Amino acid sequence: MNDPKSIVVGDSIIDNFQVYTVSGVIEQTNNKGQAEVVVHYAPKTNPNLICSTPLKNFQEASLRKLMDKNELKSLIKDLAIKADDEVWVDNNAKNGKEILYLNNPTKTAKLLKNLWQKKKNNVVNYLKSDQEMFDTAMNHLVDEICLVCDDSKIKSKEMVMKALDKN
Prior knowledge:
This protein is α+β, with helices and mostly antiparallel strands. The chain has 2 domains: about 5-65, Thrombin, subunit H, CATH 2.40.10.170; about 70-165, Up-down Bundle (Methane Monooxygenase Hydroxylase, Chain G, domain 1). About 45% of the residues lie in helices and about 15% in strands. It is built from 5 helices and 5 strands. The protein has helices at about 70-80, 95-100, 105-120, 130-150, 155-165, and strands at about 10-15, 20-30, 35-45, 50-55, 65. It has a 5-stranded antiparallel beta sheet with strand order 4-3-2-1-5, with no helix packed on it.
């Protein structure tokens, strides 16, 4: 994804569940006397709550910049490409949740695509938990697409479903 070193004030960053606005990128001295870059950010829903994380810990904290439009185009294009015949057979809730917690839209899209194939191919063992995981993955992608494209959730979901239907 994006290079975290390119984070500047005003950027939007995202974790598994929430979008934040960067309010400061400051070089500070940590408790070991070493200089490190700390990013200050606030949830878009509560700009008075300021959070901060050292830049070097972004990956561990599952924080990243939003996709850019080129990354989004690539992701939608990948969703539209017919997947291999292999369907991710071990679609259990634990594995799906682990993929969603990675906060990686490419992996989330792959999970979504595999669940879509499983559903479309009328696989007998398409469970309620598969549908719930599909809905969660869809919501993760749609929410980010809304922000990247400045579009409605309905249009963003239509974009994803149109790509999936090409499979």
